[in-house]
């Protein structure tokens, strides 16, 4: 029996004990995960530094800070999320107890990504724990130091049977995918996402696929170009461009192209100095295979800014490309590196057409003062998310579902969305063995009269909460009328007395 198979069996056996059902146990595990993030902050930062060249402050900002927020939110809201959820009834079920009860799915497989090896691996784990599942955690082997740190340290804080960490490469992942899970949560490329979905289909296992794609960024010529380019520069070159929601390419009119190039050049210098290679907060491409892939994407395009590289350090400078078309090599795949192509379009009409001719992206960025233009892009395109006048920050809002559509993924997570994604929302209806006269209309023979009553009772939706509010308002109105009547009667007593005396 393989190591992977043993890990899955242990997790399932532990889940079947029912230990994860009580909310107190889930909260205990979430507090332990929070303690892990707090106490091992330095170990996490060191691993990310060795994998991606990221600074300690960068790791805290883009990896652990968001994790802390997700864990604390789950602890605070868990009782509310896990509680039965009343639903509207029809007249046939008005006296019944009807609700949705979230329940654990079982054993979840979480396959993480290498670009943010802690955030995108442990955030789904927060949802899995909160929902009462067991989870097998498979960190990406590409970020090898982070994977090793997770394997060594996480079992010291979490139940090692319920939440085992399985490391390894393609062979180990393939072996895991042969096992039966109750849900698979994968973050990575569309190519591998298809393989994950194919493997899941053999067991009819539902999947959440957090993929990527080429996220466009349209800059309106009438917006504040200085501010827009500052925000685009930050969003693009964070983590050396290795961010699934980074702006992949810019669409703008020819009249502002040179201005956009100059503003981005100015911001690169401000953010990363004249020599980004020596700057602490500018990272590295994760390995030489990806370095060569990113460098090859520049073929056929003109370098307007940057272009420097050092293969021995997997260093590529923040780079802006111009003279790019939809047929250029850099437009054939998600860049996932510090290259920013600029494509000129005649205006928002052509920009929308250009976006719609391609696969649905994970996010669309729009920079404009014109709210009608922004609303038009929302109405006439499709993407996992749309963000106007900034980059990346929608990821920080736990109330927003984070996920793709079409080629950029399926399913979503963050906050309550993580809990719901990794729960079975079970329909529950509890009747009493009474009122058989009403129920008898369901039984044969089905006369026209019975059908008429059934149509009325089944199709008439009843909002019980609204009825309760109306009843409460009626009671309050009646009470107010009674108080007014009493006060009026008290005031009338002296008048009646004087009349009587006369």
Write a concise keyword list for the protein shown above:
46% helix; Aldehyde Dehydrogenase, Chain A, domain 2; 3-chloroallyl aldehyde dehydrogenase activity; 502 residues; 4 domains; single chain; Aldehyde Dehydrogenase, Chain A, domain 1; globular; 17 helices; 16% strand; alpha/beta
Structural class: alpha/beta
Q: For the record, what CATH class of the largest domain applies? A: Alpha Beta
Q: Give the number of domains.
A: 4
- Low-pLDDT stretches are none
Radius of gyration: 29 Å
Helix segment count? 17
User: What do the pLDDT scores average to?
Assistant: 92
CATH superfamily of the largest domain: Aldehyde Dehydrogenase, Chain A, domain 1
> End-to-end span in angstroms?
108 Å
Active site: 210, 244
Main location: endoplasmic reticulum
Family: Belongs to the aldehyde dehydrogenase family.
Subcellular location: Endoplasmic reticulum membrane; Microsome membrane
Description:
- The protein is globular, with a radius of gyration of 29 Å.
- It has four domains: 3-211 and 414-425, 3-Layer(aba) Sandwich (Aldehyde Dehydrogenase, Chain A, domain 1), CATH 3.40.605.10; 216-396, 3-Layer(aba) Sandwich (Aldehyde Dehydrogenase, Chain A, domain 2), CATH 3.40.309; 432-462, no CATH class; 463-502.
- The mean pLDDT is 92.
- It is an alpha/beta fold and 502 residues long.
- The protein is built from 17 helices and 19 strands.
- The longest helix is centred in the last third of the chain and has 38 residues, at 464-501.
